[in-house]
Specification:
mainly beta, 17% strand, globular
Length: 93
């Protein structure tokens, strides 16, 4: 009869769980899109666009939200940066 110490139990240490999104190399075109860490990260190509849900996935792994906020692949949040004062927004004639 096997004693209780020889039984293997599964603990959270046995599995690798993370809340960080993986950033696979989605950018397969030339020239490559700017990285998620670069200042011009918003200029990357769209991979998925869901305006009905208010978000888009860019080629560099950045989730861009319609309020101009961003979620970077490493989990960092970029606060919305749209203009607050509509009086400063120029309109085309």
């Amino acid at each position: 009869m096997a004693d209780a110490t020889s039984r293997r139990t599964h603990t959270s240490a046995d599995t690798d769980h993370t809340t960080e999104r993986k950033n696979p190399s989605m950018c397969q075109h030339q020239p490559p899109c700017p990285s998620a860490d670069s200042a011009d990260r918003e200029s990357a190509r769209l991979v998925a666009h869901h305006p009905e849900q208010g978000w888009s996935l860019l080629c560099n792994g950045v989730l861009l939200f319609e309020d101009t906020g961003e979620l970077l692949p490493d989990g960092r949040v970029i606060a919305p940066h749209r203009p607050l004062d509509t009086g400063q927004v120029a309109t085309a004639a």
